[in-house]
Amino acid sequence: MEPRPRSFYVLAGIFGLFLLFLYGPTITIAILSFQGPEGGLTFPMRGVSVHWFRDLFQQQAVGDIWGAFGRSLLLGLMVMVTTVVVSVMGGLAFRKKFAGSGLVFQLVVASLVIPSILVSLGVGLIFSQAGLPVHWASSGFGAQLTWTLPFGLLIMFAVFNRFNPAYEEAARDQGASAWQTIRHVVLPIIAPSLIGVALFGFTLSYDEFARTLLTSGSHNTLPLEIYGMTTNVTTPVIFALGTLTTVFSFIVIGVFLLTVWTLGRRRARAGSDAGKGV
Predict the structure, then answer these.
(1) What are 78-105's pLDDT values in tens digits?
(2) Distance of alpha carbon 48 from its chain centroid, rounded?
(3) Is the peptide bond before 3 cis (omega within 30 degrees of 0)?
């Protein structure tokens, strides 16, 4: 086995530093969340315990942690479903050129480069001027879609650009209607990509701060609640909250990856059974 060149170790070291920079703050917060009852927000640690995790499940003197978590979870699910549905419809629509398609595409992408705080301010002003209540489930929902939909649409554009129309033609030759073709042919084939869009939609919504800042009304989502706690909470309970939030995010990602793996196994098994049948 030939020895690796020196450049390999240099690049590996740079990559290791990148990972440390990326995950170091999260690891530090996770460690500090296990401070003892007398512990503070900095090192050195004063004992090791799960005291601050227990404290999370008791009545908090400041903030509404679990209410904010429930709002973020529900909002994330709303954004996820809407992003998946609209992205699939948009991807199907853009398979054929239509008048103004280029302009529509540019407008979709432009939403990604507009500063998030300006989007939040604009959506909040529109709702206020229209006499509509500024609420996390209405204006906050709309503001977050300006962030998640472009990602979902771009993914679907890439998927349908590589999609082989022969599958649809074969289904139509067998007498399938347009809806049956989409339901039984198109959607199963693009299912892994749909799961990716759903993951984008949920995680981007769940963690979004700037576009929710001026559109959530009088009820905070979890990122806003955590930000508010940084100004008036002086115990490691905020670190415990951050650790649980991170664990929850990894669980969500794991569930989506497991779903993709399961779908892949089912498709492989179905292909194998079809081959044996032939």
Answers:
(1) 999 999 999 999 999 888 878 888 888 8
(2) 33
(3) no
Mean pLDDT value of segment 147-158? 92
| Token output for 30 | 């996770």
Cβ pair 205, 76 in contact under 8 A:
yes
pLDDT in tens, 161-175: 888 889 999 988 888
User: For residue 103, what is the DSSP state?
Assistant: H
**Percent of the chain clearing pLDDT 70 (strictly above):** 95
Nearest by Cα to 108 from 126, 121, 89: 89
The Cα–Cα gap between 155 and 162 comes to 11
Cα 263 to Cα 71, 157, 210, 223, distances in angstroms: 30, 22, 35, 32
- Per-residue tokens: 267: 């498709």
pLDDT over 60 (residue 61): no
Rounded to whole angstroms, the Cα distance separating 251 from 68 reads 19
Which pair of structure tokens corresponds to residue 212? Answer: 């929710």
Give me the pLDDT at residue 276, please: 63
Count of CA atoms in the C-beta half-sphere (13 A) of 150: 15
From residue 222, alpha-carbon distances to 65, 66, 166, 242, 264 in Å are 7, 8, 46, 10, 34
Does residue 43 register a pLDDT over 90?
A: no
Pick from 196, 203, 170, 193: which is nearest to 92 by CA? 193
Predicted pLDDT of residue 42: 82
Token reading at 172: 């139509």
CB-CB contact of 33 with 52 (8 Å): yes
Question: Hey, which residues does 35 pair with through a beta bridge?
Answer: 48
Amino acid identity of residue 268, one-letter, is A
